[in-house]
Each structure stands twice: as structure tokens, then as C-alpha cells.
Write a structure and sequence with these properties.
six-stranded mixed beta sheet, five-stranded mixed beta sheet, 24% strand, globular
């Protein structure tokens, strides 16, 4: 090979390496609950792929492992929780996780296979709520708003069954892992269930719930990342895609009020 051909070959090889690196997709691993979080993420996968981001969706069925996996760098982000839960979990487990932005709200609902109205609950009825602190306190507020109980002033999302100051029907509050609430309905008089788990069990919050949280709920579900990663280009592209008109239309048409856009 003469010198001229050698230089041309070297230049082409360098160009190939440069463009091959430039065009290589960046993998972004995100943990998510199956419904609606993973479904929403699937909507943005094609758009992100066009931008050189390969969005890998890893589904979780609980509220514990996604944050631990994110902190351990097994994930780049997760999408399954509202901000009060993220803040409380991070504090309790000494994790440095933050929100990269809100996407949607899932109004909590009260479900029952035994009564059609909360007023029909008998004295001493068993009503289940999630056993994690923020969702449990939120569920109690749903029951209070429906007039079933009265909570101590100011407890908000931090309320526990011990903060109930009036319980006319003397209902028995049962604390159950959130993911198992739909399956536990047969053994309960009623249960307050997060919409993602209700939807996953083919319960429609707008049709099947006998009481539902107001749509102006402050519990917007967020994309969580390790502190400092919220400014990474790939995370910013993810949030931009999740806040697109296409995602808003998908949420509104797919869930018909059971999931509400928060942007």
C-alpha cells in the first residue's frame, strides 16, 4: 500500500470510528410499575430512539426495590411514586434521590365487593389501606374526605390510624402492602387502592371505585433520579418526551380520568 492509499484508509477508519461512536445509542435504564408507568414510557421509546437514547424499561411490582436499585446504580431512573413517598423513603433509607419532574396523578379510590356505597358499611367493618407511611396517610385522607372518619388537624400525609379522632362506624383499619390490596378485597369490606394497582387488577377507578380522591390531588407521580443526574442530557430528553402533547393525549384517552396529566 502506497503512502497516499494508507492515509486515505486511515482517514476513513478514523471517520468510521467517530461517526460510529456518535451514532451509538445511549442506554437509559428506568424502573417502573407495569400500569400505567411502563405503558406511558413505551409511548416515548420510539421518540427517544430517534434521539439516540435506548430506553430500557424494567418492571417492578413493589414500592421498595426500584428506589434501592436506583441508589445502587442498577437503574438510571425510576417512575412509580409520588413526591411525598420519594422524600419519605429517601429520608428513612438515607438515599440521595430527587425528582426530575412530575408526569401524572393517579387518584386513589375506595373499592369494595360487598357494598356499593361507603354509607352501607356496617359497624366494625374492615377497611384496608397501604402499609407504607405516605400512601397510608393519603388513604386515610380519602376516607376522611368521604366522611367515614375524622383525622386530627394538620397531620396530612403523615397521618396514621392513631390520628383518627372520630370513627362513628368503629371501622377497623387494616394496613396491607399496597401491591396486594386488590387480591385482598375478597377478605375485606373495602380497601383504598392506588390506581396503578387497581388498573393492574382490571379495576377502573372512575367506574368501580365507590369513592375517589379529588383530581386536584398534590400527589403527582414523578421520575426519580440520583441527585445531580436530573441535569443529564438523557434525563432532560426523557422528561421532554414525557411532557409532550402525544403523552398527554395518550393518558387522557387511555385512562379516561383514572390517570390525569400533571403537566
Amino acid at each position: 500500500m502506497n503512502k497516499r492509499n494508507f492515509l486515505i484508509t486511515a482517514a476513513l477508519s478514523a471517520a468510521f470510528c467517530f461517526f460510529g461512536t456518535a451514532n451509538a445509542a445511549e442506554t437509559l435504564k428506568i424502573g417502573a410499575s407495569p400500569v400505567p408507568h411502563a405503558d406511558i414510557l413505551k409511548v416515548v421509546q420510539p421518540e427517544l430512539a430517534k434521539k439516540g437514547i435506548d430506553l430500557k424499561i424494567i418492571e417492578f411490582s413493589d414500592y421498595i426495590q426500584p428506589n434501592l436499585a436506583l441508589s445502587d446504580k442498577d437503574l438510571d431512573a425510576n417512575f412509580f411514586q409520588h413526591l411525598p413517598y420519594l422524600d419519605a423513603f429517601s429520608k428513612d433509607h438515607r438515599l440521595n434521590l430527587v425528582s426530575a419532574g412530575a408526569v401524572h396523578i393517579e387518584p386513589m379510590g375506595v373499592y369494595s365487593k360487598k357494598v356499593k356505597n361507603l354509607a352501607d358499611l356496617k359497624k366494625g367493618a374492615s377497611v384496608a389501606i397501604p402499609n407504607d407511611p405516605t400512601n397510608g396517610g393519603r388513604a386515610l385522607q380519602v376516607l376522611a374526605a368521604a366522611g367515614l372518619i375524622k383525622m386530627k388537624d394538620g397531620v396530612g400525609v403523615n397521618g396514621t390510624p392513631l390520628d383518627i379522632i372520630d370513627n362513628p362506624k368503629r371501622i377497623r383499619i387494616v394496613e396491607v402492602e399496597a401491591a396486594t390490596l386488590p387480591r385482598a378485597l375478597d377478605d375485606l369490606d373495602a380497601a383504598v387502592i392506588n390506581s396503578n394497582y387497581a388498573l393492574g387488577a382490571n379495576l377502573n377507578p372512575t367506574k368501580d371505585a365507590i369513592a375517589i380522591e379529588a383530581k386536584d390531588s398534590p400527589y403527582a407521580n414523578v421520575v426519580a433520579v440520583r441527585a445531580g443526574d436530573e441535569n443529564k442530557p438523557a434525563i432532560k430528553e426523557l422528561m421532554s418526551s414525557l411532557h409532550s402533547p402525544e403523552v398527554k393525549k395518550f393518558i387522557e384517552e387511555k385512562y379516561n380520568g383514572a390517570v390525569v396529566p400533571a403537566f
